[in-house]
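Hi F.,

I've been meaning to write this up properly since the lab meeting, where we talked about keeping a consistent format for the predictions we share between groups. The idea is simple: the sequence comes first, exactly as it goes in, then the structure tokens exactly as they come out, then a line or two of notes. No screenshots and no reformatting. I'm using this chain as the first example so we have something concrete to point to.
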Amino acid sequence: MRHDLMDILACPMCKGVLTLSATREEAGEVIEGALSCATCNETFPITDGIPNLLPPDLRRAMEAEAARPSIH
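Output, unedited:
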């Protein structure tokens, strides 16, 4: 995720200001980290350079589904 995206991103839950916490950067881009909203106290992960701005309950449901073994 590029740092300049912070100028246009807002919390998807309450439209509050997001704060970036980068744990890994490469070539000036955030690869791993999180976006946090102080207004509603939600945190959104950044994985492989992509911020996941889904609502937390939907994000948890999708993560649980992805973790389940597939049966073919």
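Notes:
Helices lie at 56-67.
The CA atoms of residues 12 and 53 lie 7 Å apart.

If this format works for you, I'll send the rest the same way.

G.
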